[in-house]
Amino acid sequence: MKINLKIFLALLVILIFAGFFAKGKFTSPLKQAIEPKITQPSYSKVNLAVQHMARQIPAIVALKKGFYKKYQLEVNYIQVPKNLTSVLVSGKADAAVTSVNTSLSAAVENAPISWIGTVNNSATRLLVSTKEINEIKTVGIISGVDRVQVSSLLKFAGADTTNMTFQQFADVSAKQIALKGKKIDAITADKADWTIFKKKFNLPDEYKILLDSSVDKKLSLPVGIVVRNEFLKNNQKAAENLAKALIEADYWITKNPEEYRKLLKEEYKKDLPEDYIETHASVYLETLKGLEFAPSLEKAQDMQRLVETPDSKNKANDLNNFVNTTISDSLKIEGFLDQFKFD
After folding, report:
1. What pTM, to 2 d.p., does this model score?
2. pLDDT tens digits along 2-23
3. Virtual torsion, Cα 12, 17, 21, 27, nearest 10 deg
4. What are the distances in angstroms from CA 223 to CA 105, 142, 293?
5. What is the pLDDT of residue 42?
6. Chosen CATH of 125-212 out of 3.40.190.10, 1.10.3720.10, 3.40.50.2300, 3.40.50.150
7. How far apart are CA 86 and CA 226, in angstroms?
8. Phi and psi at residue 325, to the nearest 5°
9. Which overall architecture, per CATH, does domain 45-121+222-271+292-339 show?
């Protein structure tokens, strides 16, 4: 019996297609159009160093509110008890949220790091004493640049530091206790820390604030994003996205103050008293007003004057290597910064 050639070829094609369908090796063009292949977004990894609770706040909010994920970041936190800048310089971290002035001294000594943006106007420092400014004889300090900063604040307040004695303590708590016992005349302290300490021991008005660094822009010590130069060079997009996540976190804080406080209390409830968390939350919120993200050479020079010594080799021109506007310029051109007003 003769088989029509056309019928034979049709049967052969049907058998071949049936085989592909059976083995799952064929997907019709129609099905591909209806069910397009979904590709997962590529996430950039960033090792972010954080230290003091007040410096962690925008980083924690960015994590909890999903801003890192929004900007395709996978952030690994590195908790640093002290010497955060050395962790950054060593390459153990890519970026840090820190008081910019603590990194500035290393930068002018040619450490390969850059300040790319500000997330808080001021890590507010207070000059506290039981005496009038011209009566201060002994001042409590801790290691590092603290002595230079304290001297600068004292001079700004009108004190003659020539014959003052600077007594070194292990940490902030130790020098606050020494002031409480009147073993020293004055200290500088973080505003939130001092507010909590004074309330805890119910200290009288005799313990007064002689100077508040947030009152004068020349004395403000901004909290910012500091990055390794190598990381910035090779991962500019990741640095931009980190900046975006932290800026949006700050903006969210200003628009949702009650939810922000609730978020922090939930995050730190196992480690810190509620009134401690509340104080830090309030102080941080206060210093977001008028926030300008872009770093500036003028501000860096103001900070330098607070840490330089008579025989310092630091020169203002060296700060050009530290103040990096690559990220802020890019975000301005993109129009990103215009979306967030910190009035």
Report:
1. 0.80
2. 455 556 555 555 555 555 444 4
3. 180
4. 15, 20, 10
5. 80
6. 3.40.190.10
7. 12
8. -100, 15
9. 3-Layer(aba) Sandwich (3.40)
